[in-house]
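Before a computer can learn anything about folding, someone has to put a protein's shape into writing. The three-dimensional part falls to structure tokens, numbers that each stand for a local backbone shape. The protein below has been through that process, and both of its lines are reproduced in full.
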Amino acid sequence: MPQEELQAPAAFAEINKRAESQPALVKKVGAIIVFDITKDGKVQQSWTIDGKQGKIYEGKPKEGTTAQVTITVDDNDFIQLSTGKANAPALFAKGKLKVKGNVMLAQKLSTLFKEQSKL
């Protein structure tokens, strides 16, 4: 059975376009944050937001860097989050978003997503 197509790559592509034109926006995050995107409870894809370098890329952090926060979220919930239709604290409270590491750093992502939801 073919895997369902993930929607997250399209959302990350949009966020990345903005990041490339406004690296300062990503640097505001100031931390290395990994998103593990899941489908049916299994991690399908990972993305790294490198707030130190001002870059976003597919995969785990590059060698020599370590994530300070790992966020695990379902593909559909990530889309809701990135478009502003859901907020992270509500998803977290429902157990739909898991955070490993420094939760306070994860809150800095709201600057990226607020910009994204204006699209």
In short: The longest strand covers residues 42-50.
